[in-house]
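Researcher: Here's a chain I'd like modeled. Treat it as a single chain, no partners, no ligands.
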Amino acid sequence: MPVNFVTALAVKSFDLPDKKRCPDNAEFDLVTVNDFSVARLILGPGWRWSESIRPLEGTELCEHHHLGFCIAGVMEVESSGGVRTTIRANDTYAIPPGHDEWVAGSDPFVAVEFLGAASFGRRSGRGVHARI
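Model: Modeled as a single isolated chain. Structure tokens:
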């Protein structure tokens, strides 16, 4: 497994993202600092991976690894084995590949993700991690 090191001071703002993706009822703001891609996710009420992103990804379930921090809202996650969990504001989360996820309630889900960010919401990403 390759090891990543921070080699230089770098600061970027989600106010001026390197890339913005806006699939159905979602907004992904992406920045790269050094060799690390970070995303801000804003998922609207009613958003569900299996309905909104599956056609782009082309997989039965989300095949991304996620490592993130929830700023606001509520997300439900269900694994392929039927294990369910809820992510709420101020929760840090790790989600392995093979899951569906959806926004619960009437507020948007807002999070920052540090793993899986570059490829999420990209056509035919199929869970493959890449720089933005």
